Amino acid sequence: xxxxxxxxxxxxxxxxxxxxxxxxxxxxxxxxxxxxxxxxxxxxxxxxxxxxxxxxxxxxxxxxxxxxxxxxxxxxxxxxxxxxxxxxxxxxxxxxxxxxxxxxxxxxxxxxxxxxxxxxxxxxxxxxxxxxxxxxxxxxxxxxxxxxxxxxxxxxxxxxxxxxxxxxxxxxxxxxxxxxxxxxxxxxxxxxxxxxxxxxxxxxxxxxxxxxxxxxxxxxxxxxxxxxxxxxxxxxxxxxxxxxxxxxxxxxxxxxxxxxxxxxxxxxxxxxxxxxxxxxxxxxxxxxxxxxxxxxxxxxxxxxxxxxxxxxxxxxxxxxxxxxxxxxxxxxxxxxxxxxxxxxxxxxxxxxxxxxxxxxxxxxxxxxxxxxxxxxxxxxxxxxxxxxxxxxxxxxxxxxxxxxxxxx
Amino acid sequence: xxxxxxxxxxxxxxxxxxxxxxxxxxxxxxxxxxxxxxxxxxxxxxxxxxxxxxxxxxxxxxxxxxxxxxxxxxxxxxxxxxxxxxxxxxxxxxxxxxxxxxxxxxxxxxxxxxxxxxxxxxxxxxxxxxxxxxxxxxxxxxxxxxxxxxxxxxxxxxxxxxxxxxxxxxxxxxxxxxxxxxxxxxxxxxxxxxxxxxxxxxxxxxxxxxxxxxxxxxxxxxxxxxxxxxxxxxxxxxxxxxxx
Lengths: 408, 244
What we know:
- The complex is a heterodimer of chains A (408) and B (244).
- Chain A is built from four helices and 20 strands.
- Chain A has an 18-stranded antiparallel beta barrel. A two-stranded antiparallel ribbon of chain A has the order 12-13.
- With 408 residues, chain A is mainly β.
- The longest helix of chain A is centred in the last third of the chain and has 15 residues, at 287-301.
- Chain A has helices at 3-12, 287-301, 311-321, 390-393, and strands at 23-37, 56-67, 70-81, 87-101, 104-111, 143-151, 155-162, 177-186, 189-198, 202-212, 217-226, 229-234, 249-254, 257-267, 272-281, 333-342, 346-355, 360-370, 374-384, 396-407.
- By secondary structure, chain B is an alpha+beta fold.
- Chain B is built from three helices and 13 strands.
- The longest helix of chain B is centred in the first third of the chain and has 30 residues, at 2-31.
- Chains A and B meet through strand 1, strand 4, strand 5 and strand 7 of A and strand 2 and helix 2 of B.
């Protein structure tokens, strides 16, 4: 485990100060989810080979502890999917030391590093982009890193060496990288600047701005430019034979692109709030890419039952195509409108994510109630759109859930 | 006859002017019952009551620094890891598991279980100005009544009608009005001798909109403690060594 040497380095430096008694906290969660499949999707025949469209029950315990300068958060989780054997996983979300050496602030270990500006999509989260739109994700998983920070009362510099010695890996978040952040507060305005280098993306640089306009309104915007990016797509698109014996996805290196986000929120005295956010992600699929994938899926699905074509080969290829949804932004252009109500005990939210270029949408509603140590939430998310839109192609129509959390 | 009326009127005017001049001093004296001068760390226990029954209990540790700066560490199991920085009229919140402090507006600061503004704002003198508008007896105590108006946009309450004990300037009652001039809460104060001096030990907030709700804030401990200026940087919230 790459984190352990980093923690050992901090401990060996003698920089772990004596402090308070250990602190512990935790939460048990139980989250049943009902999933309604979209049988009309051309990908539907592949869905049974994936987790899409399966009802499930997730149970987990998350524990946090802090002793001296060492902080830990870990999760043990069991997931039982309809028709599958239960899966059990253990996860170290964070294990790090925040300490001072020679008066300078350092971090060693696995830590969640969020630098972005915005609500749904934060281009400046260059060290680890967090998918803010996932349902029932409560604590993110950190990144192994060594960080140096310097603060004044209104400015901060951070240098992060993330995933030391990892080089280029299968996932961007696991790549070795060097990142720099500058932050400045100027009265009611925050300014953010980031830069990062990794073998995958080359140099990335971005700026962010966040301003509180009055008691109720704040506005924000951020943008990130990158030297290059990886683009993964189904290699069978445009091919003469629409089936492949294995994973048909191919990843290619593409040139420079940008990620842009802007939005604003209004919160009233009554607890009612509105948020509007629009963003563009140049690393995501265009509407035309989804239309191409739709055409491929239709051609593949048409082979089901064809003489001499194994049904397993067809459904397997369709299942591979669902990998196109495994990305933070499914489509490049996105607009989110969110209504919320926040009272002392009850919260409610309704939002719609629209992908205007292909006419797709995702509707999400939730209601939650907080007691002393107990919190429950019920909600639902519906995916909609024309057949060749990303969210219309998804072989899942609806997800409904009920989350119960007990804090200790 | 007219000379006597003029004399009385002049005397009343002079007295009112004297009170008006004394308002900052009165507020400072009242503030001293909640927060003595200087940087401090205050442990608070908050009970949220509904129809007289305990609904929720919350604990907070608040680092307060002159210049309207405070850091609130949320200590209850259901809020563990949350932190809020209040620096003048600017506010940031760190939610556990995100690693990223976010700016919040003054209105967003008021949302949630117990308003962090009620917990972390322990002084009036820096935020409010006003006049003495009369004298009334509250809970059997002769009080001076002050009408206060917020001098800054970031405070939780736009207007306060504050009742201070005439003899000691101890806070007795405060009617708290939000920006729409709606009476949101009525605060009453319990003052007792702690560490050799009289201090507010409890603030009871009766919700005037949801009448069945009441919040009791108990000041469990106060200790002198000064954090370095850099810890009041919003980005410092993501570090775990805020309090060391």
